[in-house]
Amino acid sequence: MNIEKSTKAARGTVQCENTNINLLKANDYVAEIIRNEMKKSNTLLINITSSAGSGKTTLMQKTAEKLKDKITLAVMVGDLETERDAERIRESGIQALQIVTGGICHLEAQMIHQVLPEYKLDDIDLLFIENVGNLVCPASFDLGEDYRVTLMASTEGDDKPKKYPRMFLTSDMMLISKCDLLPYLPFSVDAVTKDALEVNHELEVMQISALKDEGIDEWCDWLLEKIKQKQNN
After folding, report:
1. Is the predicted pLDDT of residue 168 greater than 90, yes or no?
2. pTM of this prediction?
3. From its phi and psi, is residue 180 left (phi > 0), alpha (psi between -120 and 50) or beta?
4. Does residue 7 fall inside a structural domain?
């Protein structure tokens, strides 16, 4: 008995691909709305990305400590569960709201746009988005940011830029974090910088340690210069 083969594609094959494309297009549309809102208020929007545990929240705390008396800054924090990071940042004396993604491994523009009304943007010079800890998915989603900054912790190993190239390709700055641990780890600053610049030759690179306050002044100077540039445009 001959059984006729189905000519239909496997369920979800083509549809899933098209859905993914449409999702990114929809995301980019909302991201442009966010970008326009940031332009109207002259608020600098920075998307902070990294693997989990690279020091994003500690960096936000240290940045708040250094800049809260000079400018008005605030943070949106993305995590799968809990408000722990937002609570830590609020202890630094600045506004921080938590976006609980409930299992989604990245933030999307529509999530950011829903939270924006909670902020008085006209009074905010600098708004950080602390993205979900992940070097893969967040790379694909424009959040309307002016700059994307990726932390590369010395504890992760120096081979990440070539393993996760899209994240470094779409970033403007790579912060080598936890640099106080460099003497104790098999991590090469030269190697990670070389790989990152081969992926993105326009990438800026800084070394920081939020706990030891190393490189934080230079980081804050970079932020202040970007704020000045945006407000003067």
Report:
1. yes
2. 0.88
3. alpha
4. no
